[in-house]
Design a protein that fits this description.
It is a single chain. By secondary structure, the chain is an all-alpha fold. Among the domains are: 112 residues, Serine Threonine Protein Phosphatase 5, Tetratricopeptide repeat; 128 residues, Alpha Horseshoe (Serine Threonine Protein Phosphatase 5, Tetratricopeptide repeat). Helices cover 69% and strands 0% of the residues. α24 packs antiparallel against α25. The protein is globular. The chain starts with 31 loop residues before the first helix and ends in a 10-residue tail after the last helix.
Length: 575
């Protein structure tokens, strides 16, 4: 089957409350040529450089945009807009050595520039110049999100000066603000612990844990606090509860191992700079929409500047880069995580996935194989190995990897939906149709609303001309779940075609072409339907268009023949 409608990609995503902490050897270093950013083309003219900067910015090429804007600034150093853009891209690229001096210049031209003042406040936090932190925050412009940011930064600046009660008063400004109660109570607990007011800190940690959204990060802080207070069994109960809710949680796994080893942890926050980093991390993590990606990337980078070993912030930053398809940048970020980190193994898996995405499948597969050898119980590693092998057409080798992952997961687990689907695709590619059909049905038994699996199974039946009525039911359901998906609409139209209901097929295939106008296969199908309802001129137009859209090599001669001699009409169709 040559159809393109769902190419199952890597199923390992950065779900940062999951992952294993098994001991493992450090993987071999990634070749420097892969980590190096792609060379920035030299542009000789000012206009060309400006256009290149804007294009790099629109494509999420942060390093490229930073370089082009820096070049432009040399031509026009007094241009406030260029200066602000150069600063923002330098900071968003993690180049704080460049960003901080630029921020100092920005505020001279724009005294209310919020990100520049935030950058300067972060620099002052690193220098433990807490009065300067307050001064920078006080000069920043308003806006609800930045006001929330400024409140957290100011509270930690006051805590750094020993003014704990004043810091708590500042935090209490957030008491009436919707959606931030967890953030307020969590930072209240952190500040109280930092000040050594442990009885109050314990109460605040318990209050924070009762607020939805605090989750594993709060459990990490509270677990450390309990263990430092000599309350190991309370900490153990906390970790066990977390592990029950979130299997293989790094926080729970590491915490329990450290209790058994008698290791005493550091507090989650040891300095005001780390407290501010924690706040920026929480705010950046809350910005889940793609339209907020630039602010999230900026905040994650400033958090890492304030706390260079903030591994969870690195993990989330890498995930942000993945969401805008900047896989090389994500690999670079993940490479800064220590092999001793509880997140290291999980992010090694993600690094391998990203290597596969940038065409380095051989390196990726070797790295994941090393992970499976060091811990044969790592479900994520086996899943990633299957995905990577499947991505290069090694279907026979991918199936055993998926088998290992599936056998390690409890029946009914949502992860099995993707795994059965992926293994089914491998079976079908090897023409093991019975096994493929069984896997697709297993996937749907767990999640009957998965439109992509409904579409794959339904279209496969249509392609084989079997179970056509049943296939149509599945495909119509998929279409109701994803009405704007042109490939699913095409599947429905093709099912009607195979059932001999050509007019209905033509109507739906017309909609499919509108939804996915660049798909050769859909135009080809529409041409067939037009021919069968007697619209021969329209059919030839669609076939010609399908040829121009670069069809699969084995399909091209079929379309060319139809253009020469047409198709045989069924007896009931008028010519």
């Amino acid at each position: 089957m040559t159809r393109k409608f769902y190419k199952a990609g890597p199923t390992i995503l950065v779900a940062l409350v999951l992952g294993a902490c098994a001991a493992m050897p450090e993987n071999a270093a990634i070749p420097a040529s892969i980590l190096e950013p792609e060379p920035i083309p030299v542009v000789s003219s000012v206009t060309g450089t400006y256009l290149a900067a804007r294009f790099a910015s629109s494509q999420g090429e942060i390093d490229g945009a930073a370089a082009y804007y820096a070049n432009l600034l040399e031509f026009d150093p007094g241009n406030s807009d260029l200066l602000a853009r150069t600063f923002l891209f330098a900071a968003s690229a993690g180049d704080m050595e460049t960003a901080i001096p630029l921020a100092q210049r920005v505020v001279l031209l724009d005294p209310r520039h919020r990100p520049a003042h935030l950058m300067l406040a972060a620099s002052a936090l690193q220098a433990e110049n807490y009065p300067l932190v307050e001064e920078e925050i006080g000069q920043a412009g308003g806006g609800a999100f930045f006001s929330l940011t400024n409140t957290l930064i100011q509270a930690w600046a006051l805590a750094g000066q020993g003014s704990t009660d004043d810091a708590l008063v500042v935090l209490d400004r957030l008491a009436d603000q919707n959606g931030v109660e967890g953030l307020r109570t969590f930072h209240r607990a952190l500040i109280l612990e930092y000040a050594g007011r442990n009885d109050e800190a314990g109460e605040s940690y318990r209050a924070a844990m009762g607020v939805p959204g605090v989750g594993a990060r709060g459990a990490d802080a509270l677990g450390r606090f309990l263990r430092r207070s000599g309350r190991d069994e309370e900490a153990r109960a906390l970790y066990l509860s977390l592990a029950e809710r979130v299997p293989d949680s790094p926080v729970a796994t590491l915490g329990l191992a450290e209790i058994d080893a008698g290791q005493l942890p550091a507090p989650l926050i040891s300095t005001p700079a780390e407290g501010a980093a924690e706040g920026l991390f929480a705010l950046a993590s809350s910005l889940t929409g793609d339209n907020n990606s630039d602010i999230a990337v900026l905040y994650f980078n400033i958090a890492i500047y304030l706390q260079p070993d903030f591994e969870l912030a690195r993990a989330f930053l890498g995930n942000r880069y993945e969401r805008i398809d900047k896989y090389r940048k994500a690999i670079e970020v993940y490479s800064g995580i220590s092999p001793q980190s509880p997140y290291y193994r999980m992010l090694e898996v993600q690094t391998a996935v990203n290597l596969g995405r940038i065409g380095q499948a051989d390196i990726a597969i070797a790295r994941v194989r090393a992970l499976t050898r060091s811990d044969a119980g790592d479900t994520d590693a086996w899943t990633a190995l299957g995905d990577l092998l499947r991505s290069v057409g090694e279907f026979e080798d991918a199936i055993p990897a998926y088998n290992r992952a599936i056998n390690q997961i409890s029946e009914g687990d949502e992860r099995l939906v993707e795994l059965f689907f992926a293994r089914g695709i491998c079976h079908q590619s090897l023409e093991n149709w019975d096994a493929a059909e069984s896997d697709f049905q297993e996937s749907l038994a767990i999640d009957p609303e998965r439109a992509d699996v409904l579409n794959y199974l339904g279209y496969s039946w249509v392609d084989e001309s079997v179970n056509l009525e049943q296939a149509l039911v599945l495909l119509e359901k998929a279409r109701s779940l994803r009405p704007l998906d042109g490939y699913i609409a095409d599947s429905v139209g093709w099912a009607y075609y195979k059932l001999g209901r050509y007019r209905e097929a033509a109507e739906i295939l017309e909609q499919a072409v509108q939804l996915s106008p660049g798909a050769s296969e859909i135009n080809d199908h529409l041409g067939d339907a037009y021919w069968m309802v007697g619209r021969k001129l329209d059919a030839r137009f669609e076939w010609t268009h399908a040829l121009n859209l670069d069809p699969a090599p084995d399909v091209r001669p079929v379309i060319e023949r139809k253009l020469r001699v047409g198709m045989e009409l069924p007896p009931s169709t008028e010519s």
